[in-house]
Model the fold of this input.
Amino acid sequence: MSDDFAVQTFELAKEFNGLRAVDGIDLKIREGELFSLLGPNGAGKTTTINMLCCLLKPTKGTARVAGYDVLNEPGKVKGHIGVSPQETVLSERLNSWENLSLFGKIYGMSSKEIRERSEELLERVGLLDRAKDQVRKFSGGMKRRLNLILALIHDPQILFLDEPTLGLDPQSRRAIWEYIESLKGKKTILLTTHYMEEADFLSDMVAIIDSGKIVALGTPNELKKKFADTGVLRVSTKGLRKDILEELKAEYETVNETAEELKIVRDDLDLKEVVDFLYSRNVSVYSAAREEPTLEDVFLRITGKRLRD
Ligand SMILES: Nc1ncnc2c1ncn2[C@@H]1O[C@H](COP(=O)(O)OP(=O)(O)OP(=O)(O)O)[C@@H](O)[C@H]1O
Ligand SMILES: [Mg+2]
Done:
């Protein structure tokens, strides 16, 4: 690949009847990187992916994917990518083998290649036993797993995974995470998800998009350091008098009290110091633990708590 980046966008924008779904974004995704695009409903994630896969024409700007321009060389782009769309693209009356075969043929694979690769992929996502059943008899989670491996049949360099674990049970979700993790470094992956734990676990880089604009970019740890409270302590107590609470509030930046639970925030928080303080005033401490910031804290801090369409 001649480019430094597997995917790069240049002020990429899409308007739908005056609505700026994607509003001039500049993304750079390195080869072999797992890049997560996170954002509330309607933020512009799927629209971005559709433009990168040449399924939707940008209103303004452009992008290079695998070194090719999405406007001028869509055929070349399509040969290097695999897409697992948010809305599943399965033929309900065909079985898994037939669905995979259909995609393999589109990509010019031989029957032998398709058979071997399908078996490997079906095994990997636990569908081999049911591979002869018509897809219409599958559960939602099974359909989503098949939808994911359709994107992988031709072993593409770059993968676009739009909510690959939507609606999966915790076991299936973890199985998919492990599978995606096993692809890390070997494939360039652009992932969208609403599961912050998933993004935290898998991502090298995270971009947060809101109303079509990139509002934060960094590794999960960089984002937590920048946008979440790091010195948070949760203490469960009994016998906390009002005057002691006032004393605590004078000492620490934020002290929230809900029933017998205290949440104390200060950058250089010392767990022992707080516990000693409470003991010295005869407050019973049942538990005290430092709370690690999560990507969900970051997400809510940046995008707010207002409901989206
Ligand atoms: N074909 C279309 N015609 C008109 N508006 C559209 C079209 N596709 C998307 N939009 C609008 O563009 C905005 C972005 O939608 P998009 O599907 O990209 O969001 P998203 O970030 O993928 O959201 P979600 O998390 O719900 O999947 C929304 O306001 C949506 O209604
Ligand atoms: Mg979407």
